[in-house]
């Protein structure tokens, strides 16, 4: 399976149908539902459809998407990270989420920082956005640690809740 990028401890690979059980577990974890939203996926089949119509569709249409974060030591999936192109934003945005047991180990920063470098150097993007629930202090701190800057508060058109928008402009 293609490796999108590799860090000291992590691999970023495309999400495939065989990752459906992992995706189901991730999107139904309490913090995912609280801060990202309920994707209403309850079966492996629904997770397979989500993979096909979400990440895999984005790879084909945009050349990027959400990818599976795997630990190098055992290749087990521990989270997702990648870039999304949303109709309501003028630039791609970085997104990430991890299983509860993988939190607090620096994985999110490690892969988010590498993903931003990938966005700039491999994808030649000039600007990457990010948004987060302002109550999600860990995500907000991570965005700031990667060099992203606060832009504004706005109401998420799909979720209907207020979020904070961040941006990173790259210069050579």
TrEMBL record:
Superkingdom of the source species: Bacteria
Cited InterPro entries: Acyl_CoA_acyltransferase, GNAT_dom, N-acetyltransferase
Residue ranges that the Swiss-Prot or TrEMBL entry lists as coiled coil: none
Domain N-acetyltransferase: 10-171
Pfam name, any one: Acetyltransf_3
Listed PANTHER family: GNAT FAMILY, PUTATIVE (AFU_ORTHOLOGUE AFUA_3G00765)-RELATED-RELATED, N-ACETYLTRANSFERASE DOMAIN-CONTAINING PROTEIN
Protein name (record): Alanine acetyltransferase
Source species of the chain: Marivirga lumbricoides
């Amino acid at each position: 399976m293609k490796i999108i990028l590799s860090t000291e401890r992590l691999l970023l690979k495309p999400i495939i149908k065989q990752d459906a059980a992992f995706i189901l577990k991730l999107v139904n974890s309490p913090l995912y539902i609280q801060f990202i939203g309920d994707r209403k996926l309850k079966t492996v089949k629904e997770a397979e459809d989500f993979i096909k119509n979400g990440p895999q569709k984005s790879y084909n249409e945009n050349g990027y998407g959400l990818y599976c974060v795997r630990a190098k030591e055992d290749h087990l999936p521990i989270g997702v990270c990648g870039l999304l192109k949303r109709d309501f934003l003028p630039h791609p945005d970085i997104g990430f989420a991890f299983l509860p047991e993988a939190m607090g180990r620096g994985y999110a920063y490690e892969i988010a920082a590498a993903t931003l470098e990938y966005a700039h150097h491999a994808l030649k993007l000039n600007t990457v956005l990010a948004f987060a629930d302002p109550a999600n202090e860990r995500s907000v701190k991570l965005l700031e640690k990667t060099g992203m800057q606060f832009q504004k508060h706005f109401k998420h058109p799909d979720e209907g809740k207020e979020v904070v928008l961040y941006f990173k402009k790259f210069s050579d």
